[in-house]
Amino acid sequence: MGLVEGGSVTNFDVSIRANFVNRMGDGTKRAKADIESVGRAAKNLDRANFAARMSGQFLHVTDAARRLRAAIQNIDVERIGKVAAGVTAAVATMKRTLAAPAMADADFGDVVIDIAQKAEIGRDKVGALADEIKAMADRLRSSPLSVGKGIDVVMSSIPDADLAKRLIVPIQKVAKAYRVETDEVSKAVVAMVNNMKVAPGDIEVALGRIAQAASDGNYEIKNFAAGMPEIASTMQKFNQTGLKGVSRVAALLETVAGRAGVPGQATGWSEQMLDKAMSPDVVKNFKKKGIKIDAEIRKAMKDGGDVNEVIYAAMMKATKGDATKLVDLYGDEQARNAAAALMLDIKKYRELRDKYDK
């Protein structure tokens, strides 16, 4: 097919232009040679018109190629990469944002069903239960899912829906004020009710004492929430229960945390000190010093006395106040760390305990 009159572009025109664009990078000299070659190949065509048109087309192609090359050189590849990464991240965030309400609703629905099953509520009343929890969350200025999780945790150990709903009020207040997960505070409350025998009506007071302790020292609310389920059973074993037990454990944990590198270590250290005090090896070590620590602890347990004070007095008597001699009593390093903290900071312990008991 030849050139079409009137300036329209044929397949041949396109091929010629493509050839020029592909070869432009070799420089003007080669492009000129191409023009001459194409010109010779087109002798049988309208030479004058073809040469004139090809010359014009070459100038257009040359100019376009020059602009394209300049544009490519000016592209900030690194910036484009950052922009692309930002767009990708933004899209992912948008997806999560859009999906979050639906996911929260689904999770809340699952929690409500769990509560209903524990409370033996019929399916026809599940909707009303969900509305009640939402209303509670609104009053507490929290999310329905957070409140629901707290109630669900309480009911896992205390299968009383009405009680769980009463307890969630002080639980949520503490969780919100100290930015701790509601279900974690709920676990601590369950431990205080079940193990330390704190009356449900006194939970708000108990949480107030713990909050005060957290403000006084290094052992924070998050540490209490995580550690209480662990140490509460030990306190129960030594009959350190009720609000007095809460004051004693709070003061002990804060005292020991003051000597610990990481505040959370105080939980395990304190627990080991208490547990090991009645172990055969430790009882034997104290007996060598003429002290029947097991008998003294049992007396305190029976009378409701402060076991921490009994252990302190026995250690002082056995070591003459020299904390380095605790190694002769406690073989366990964690127990020894807590014992040393109690010996060295007994004044702090007493001040905190008495302050919380007021």
Give a structural overview:
- The protein is mostly helical and 358 residues long.
- Helix content is 76%, strand content 0%.
- α6 packs parallel to α8, α8 (182-194) packs parallel to α10 (221-237) and α9 packs parallel to α11 (242-257).
- The radius of gyration is 40 Å and the shape is globular.
- Residues 1-29 and 44-48 have low confidence and may be disordered.
Summarize the SSE layout with pairings.
Blueprint: H1 11-23, H2 28-41, H3 47-73, H4 77-119, H5 126-140, H6 144-157, H7 161-178, H8 182-194, H9 203-216, H10 221-237, H11 242-257, H12 265-276, H13 280-288, H14 293-303, H15 307-319, H16 333-344, H17 346-357
Report the principal-axis shape: globular
**How many beta-strand runs?**
0
Helix content: over 70%
Runs in which pLDDT lies below 50 for 5 or more consecutive residues are 1-29, 44-48
- What's the tally of helices? 17
Offer a few descriptive terms:
mainly alpha; 17 helices; 358 residues
